[in-house]
Each structure stands twice: as C-alpha cells, then as structure tokens.
Amino acid sequence: MAKKYGMIHDNNLCIGCQACSIACRSENEIPESVYRLQVWVKEEEYPNGTIGYEYHRQSCVQCENTPCVGVCPTKASHITEEGIVLVDVDLCVGCLYCVAACPYQARYVHPVTKAPDKCTFCHDTRLARGEEPACVTVCPTDALIFGDLNDPKSKINQALSSRVTYREKEKLGTNPKMFIVPNHKGGINS
Amino acid sequence: MNQIWGSIEQYNTVVWHWPIAVYLFLAGLSAGAIISAIVIKWMKGNDVSPSDGIIKAGSILAPVTIGAGLLLLITDLTRPLHFWKLLIHYNFGSVMTLGVLALFAYFPVVILFFMGVFKKELFETGPLQFLAPLANLALAYAKLIESVTLILAVGVGAYTGFLLSAMNSYPLFNTPVLPALFLVSGVSAGISANLVVGLLFFKSSTKDGNVSYLHGLDVKVSFVELFFLFILFVGMFYQGGSAAHVAHAALSTGGLSTLLWLGVIGLGLVLPIGLNFALPHGVKHSHGFVIFNSLIVLIGVMSLRYYILYAGQVFVG
Fold first, then answer.
1. Spans of all domains in chain A
2. Tell me, what's the pLDDT at B89?
3. Global confidence as pTM
4. Of B98, B168, B174, which to mutate for an interface test with A (greatest number of A Cβ within 10 Å)?
5. CATH value of B16-312 in 1.10.238.10, 2.40.50.140, 1.20.1630.10, 3.40.50.300
6. Quick check: helix, strand or coil at residue A116?
7. Structure confidence at residue B240 as a pLDDT band (50, 70, 90)
8. Does residue B50 register a pLDDT over 60?
9. CA distance B187 to B35
10. Rounded Cα gap, residues B302 and B288, in angstroms
11. Do the chains contact at A74 and B167, CB–CB below 8 Å?
C-alpha cells in the first residue's frame, strides 16, 4: 500500500516559538513577503479562571478530498499517491481558482513564479531524502508528529490512538490529514 | 487569533477582484444578447429579419463583449502568457474547464451568426469578400447554428454562476440558485444592451413590435431576477449557522450592502419595474425612456456581479 502522509499539531506542547515557521522558510527558500506556515496565538480563559494560550498552525492541511485540486482547470494542482497536494508550476496559468477554493487560506501567490504555492510537507527536499519535514524536525517540544497514516505502527498512528484529535472545518468534507490535539486546559482530556 | 511573527497580508480573503466581476458581466451580457436576438429572429421568421436593428445589435454585441471579457480575463491571470495551457489541458471536474470548452464552441458560432446577419453589408463586396462562402454557410445553416448557439449561450450564461457556486468555502457563492440568477440577469443585460445599440445605431424604432416586446420582456425578467435574489438570501437564512450569519452581514454591512440595496435592487430592479407600471404608455414606449430604462438595468446587472463577487469573498462567516 502506498504511504499516506499526515501530521499532528499538539496544542498542549506547542509554545508558539516560531521555530517551525523559520525552519520552513529556510528549507524551502520562501521569499520574504509570503509564508507557507505561520503559527497564530489566541488568548483563552480556562474554566479554572487562569489564562492560557491556544496556538493555531496556519498552513495547508493536505485534504484528502481537495477543493483546490477539484477546481484547477489544467490539473496544475494535483495530489500525489502519498496524499500530498502539490502545484505543477509549468501547468499553472494563475487563475487563482485554487487560492479562492481553499477553505484554509493555505495558498499564496509566489512572488517570483506568480503561481500559487503552499506547504508540501517538504516533498521535494526532505521527504525525497527520507527525512521528516523541516518543521517537525526542528520543533523543540515535539508538538509536531509526522508519519504514514497507512502504517499501523507509525508514530503518528500511535499518537492518534492515544490522544483526542480533531480536524478543522470537518463539516466541509475535505478530510484534512492535519490533526490537532486540543488544549487539555480547556477541559478535554484523554 | 493574532499572528506572532510575520506579515498576514497573504491571508487577505479577496482573491478575485473587479476584472472578474466585469468579465462575469460581459459573459452574461454576451449570452443574453445572442439569446434575445435569436428569439426575435425566430419570432419574425428567418427571411425578413436580418435587417432588424435588434438582431444586428445582438449579432455584434455577443462576439464583442465575450471577446473583451476574455481579453480582460486573460490579462488578469497572474501568468497571462501561459493562458494557452487552459486550451490544451483539461480537468473535466473543473467548472473552469467546462467553461473554456463552452466558450471554445460559443465564440465561433456567434461569429458565424454575425457573418450571416451582416452578409450583405460586409461580405458581398469589398475587402472581406473572400469570407462570403462562410457567410453563405452561416445563412444556409442558420436554423441549426442558431439552435446550437442558443444552447451554448445558456451554457455560457449559467457557467459563470457555477464557477462561483462550486466553491464551498464561500456561503454566498455556494448556493444552487446562483447560476440561475446569473443567467437571468445576463439575459436582462443582453436585452437592454440590444435595445440601446439597436435604437441608437441601427435605426430601430420603439414602434417596432420587437422593441416593445423586448422592453416588456425585460420587465418580466427583472421580476424573475428579483425573485431569485430573494430565494438566494432566504435559502441562506434557512440553512442557519454560518450561512445565515453571512446572509445577514451581506444584507446589512458596509458599502457592499448599500450597493445591493441602492444599485442592484433600487436602481436596477425596483426603479425599472416601478416606472414601467407607473408611467403612461406613451412615455414608457418613447425612445428616450427605453434607452434610460436599459441603461439603469445594465448598471444594476453590473452592480450585481460586483456585489456577489466581493460580498461572497468578504463575508465568509
């Protein structure tokens, strides 16, 4: 069976340090004005009265049912056998249909190629060398877990079986392969 | 949600800007112009009609507006020099590909229709005489070409709506009534544009049966358009949740809602309908009023495209 790559972002472990974002920019040579990945923060007041912070990973969630691929008129936006959504710059005309169709605002126009660009799980570089994506490797708290969802013994499947997770905008039926562990301090525990 | 580091400019939700709204308007107008010209041609019989001003207007407007629209669309691509890839790479699941294919067939047939209509003026003598066989072909197969054109025009008019409604990330776009609304308002724009061009440039008179017929049809089509707009918002309120919030915001917030109430509904729909009920027969069938009425309808339809495109992207729940 082909691999099916997915990722977990654990909200309890993330400290908003931005190492992932910097690593992504460095690894993928992202131009100054744009971002494949950002981590946003939201202040939360928990039931016990304390203040805490929720961290949100803003990047492509690698949908299984991909709105961006569905609308692309030239098949420049496509999904690999391993479930990674990519853009073939050669085929792209820059209609921005995919940018509009993405419910996760994951795509931006690359200032040099003028084609939409996005997180690829470091498909061409680190994955091709058998390594994990840059953001996962550099995370100091192991808040990011990456791996093959089709391998029952993989780290990601073990984490998924032991932690409560959700996916964003599940009602849209996009089936993201980015799983989020919600903050325990909010009252959810597993 | 606040960013911790970096610019959030790329997360601006408006992806498609005004050129797309103008394209959607021109494509709808083109389809509406050819649809109403063919309807008139069929009403009057194929032999007498090519000299009719409304049919001439439609036969010119349809190719010119779709051509201008497509040019605008291509220049608006972020990689305009790569546009030809749209013509050889297809994704049959994409509304845009289906639109490209519809336009592929639509453009030649509206040009053929034009050549048939203007055969005497343009292709019997003079430098374009070498195209006469093509114009003769257009006339010989007029009924077939017109039938095909009519179907393709409905496709072009509706696809612009499907283009937006295919995106489930935008509640205002993602409604089944949008393609119907765009088709109907496109027909309305086409009728109005035919009336303006026919009356101003082709010596049509408001005494012509087809001018008053089209003028009357425009009012009826405006009713349908108003009803579809009503269905759009009521449907969103019935969906509840974020769709209802979006509908509420889109109807009541900022300059866009003002554009809807004053431009689309007030100027473009209620004023023409009201005037056509209130004014005496002599006035509403006067040359000046028909042109005025057509112009406000055109402004209304353009406002509708602009409003839907921007409100859909701005109000996302």
1. 5-181
2. 97
3. 0.95
4. B168
5. 1.20.1630.10
6. strand
7. very high
8. no
9. 7
10. 21
11. no
The answer to whether the beta carbons of residues B194 and B37 sit under 8 Å apart is yes
Q: At residue A189, does pLDDT exceed 60?
A: no
Q: Is B3–A40 a contact, with Cβ atoms under 8 angstroms apart?
A: yes
For chain B, the average pLDDT equals: 94
C-alpha of B235 from chain center: 23
Q: In A, residues 98-157, which contact B (CB 8 Å cutoff)?
A: 99-103, 105, 108-109, 113-115
Q: How many CA atoms lie within 13 A of B54 on its CB side?
A: 29
Q: How far is CA B112 from CA A155, B42, B118, in A?
A: 64, 17, 10
Q: Are A57 and A37 in contact (CB under 8 A)?
A: yes
Whether A87 has its CB under 8 Å from any CB of chain B: the answer is no
What mean pLDDT comes out for the span A18-45? 95
Q: How many residues does chain A have?
A: 190
pLDDT at B314 exceeding the cut of 80: yes
Please name the member of A16, A38, A99 whose beta carbon is closest to the beta carbon of B15: A99
Instruction: Note whether B149 and B38 are within 8 A (CB).
Output: yes
Question: Which stretch of DSSP H or E encloses residue B205?
Answer: none
pLDDT at B47: 60
Q: What is the pLDDT of residue B291?
A: 96
Interface test with A, best of B7, B10, B23, B75 (most A CBs within 10 A): B10
Closest CA to B63 of B98, B115, B8: B115
- In terms of DSSP H, where are the helices of chain B? 18-44, 53-76, 85-88, 95-117, 132-140, 142-165, 178-201, 209-239, 241-252, 254-258, 271-278, 281-284, 287-314
Task: Note the ipTM here.
Answer: 0.93
pLDDT (average), residues B240-249: 96
pLDDT beyond 70 at A187: no
Question: Which one is predicted more confidently, B94 or A53?
Answer: B94
Say which CATH topology domain A5-181 has: Alpha-Beta Plaits (3.30.70)
The three-state secondary structure class of A52 is strand
